[in-house]
What does this fold into?
Amino acid sequence: MSSLPTNPPAAVDAAAEARETVPVSTPATPVAVIDVGTTSIRMAIAEIGAGRQVRTLESLSQAVSLGKDTFTRGTISKSTIEDCVRALTSYRRVLDEYGITRREHIRVVATSAVREAQNRLSFLDRIYSATGFDIEPIDEAEINRVTYLGILPYLKTEPSLAEATTIVVEVGGGSTEALLVQGDEVVQAWTYRLGSLRLRESLEEFRPSTSDLRHIMDSQIARTVAQIVEHVPEDGRIELIALGGDVRFAAAQLVPAWDAARVARIPVPALEKFVDKIAALSPDQIVHRHHIAFPEAETLAPALLAYLQLAHAFRSQHILVTNFNLRDGLLKDMARRGAWAEDFSKQIVRSAIELGRKFAFDEDHARHVADLSRQLFRSLQDVHRLEPRYELILYIAALLHEIGNFVSHVNHHKHSMYLILNSELFGLSHGDLLLVALVARYHRRSKPKSSHEGYASLDRDRRIAVSKMAALLRVTDALERSHSQRIHELRCEREDDLLVISVPETDDLSLEQLALKQKGALFEEVFGLQPMLRKVGG
It folds into this structure.
């Protein structure tokens, strides 16, 4: 007989935290992140040291016309693709000089300009074949997660934000991302199709005069600002945090003594005067006067006009600006090895519970199955060998596995999958949401099949992960067959080809044993162990 790890969740957390905080004498790991954006390709090279500390070594940037192509023609031109190849080839040489060659030490992402391009796959394939970089087009949920990770230190160190409702806004080249934060918790997140470059390019064919252009941009921006204001509660004090290179440029001009480790406060009247000056200039004049690249000059006026309108709409006396950028968040994410921050995980769980309540789920049952699933995941770490991030995906799937009953009790597992896929869960990317939906779908009935929609689109690693998580969920759902929440503690042991799940001090387990016999086949098929329930104590 071999005993499997049985640490309670709190003990596991404490042990993990101790391992993370005790200094180790290992050398710092050099890593790099590359952001393929709407107007430029930027790379940050850093070292990740003991305690997950990140120290940036070098930052590089090269202008490209990705956004101009996508937002006007819908496709990325051949010349722009080759510009990107040349830029990324030069970055590859720099990485070779630093000795950064392992794939897990390099992350390359792309935002809306690549994500929305009709020839996106051809672009990604060309880059990969020429440079070896596997570009990951990230969606809004992933951007929100990385943004939260980056601004969290500011939220915790700025006393003025503790009691306020904070709107975190970034006007990018292709879209505007907004987070509604109370304290250090994200309440809501939205994405709007207002982008500084997208806006300018949409007006370019009309060739308006400079004064007319300002008026038209103001009108277009006002529509999106009205949507943002409508989403924000009116009660309480509101603080506005602006992210993005355009507003950082304005802060550098207006707050020359800015300590980049803290937020800069730009008085709204000062910002208004600066915006008036910028909006009166053409992009060529901005380049000449302020010595910035032309693609950055094109986005400056529309982005600053949007921030100014937001400040007026919320009657703000100032806006707060941080030195955070997407690459900072990506580096912190690499330091965490892709694991979700505890604060962020709690917010994903809260979002899932709110979704479950929307569909009138049995909350006590759902929470209990989720808690048992977490216990089983941790106890069987040496058996399933899944990455830590899958613990949260399993937990969310367990919370939502029966929401399909809102539609019909017949085939409710399929209805659960449909509802999850067509709902918004804060903080989960489309890929993660698909995993949650599939695990919920496979909590009963047929096992995963290559012909099933969604499952067939996954790569091998994620298909295996779904099968493993579904097998775990079937076991814990069987243990809660009575919907009575009477099993609270599990202890797992291996006896030859059996997985013995011991339950202390619980009355008659015949109902759960029958359910486990019915639902344990997938677990045995995936892990080669037949699950068996045993009562101990009493």
Residues 486 and 506 are 7 Å apart (CA to CA). The first helix runs from residue 9 to 21. The radius of gyration is 26 Å. DSSP finds 23 helices and 15 strands in the chain.
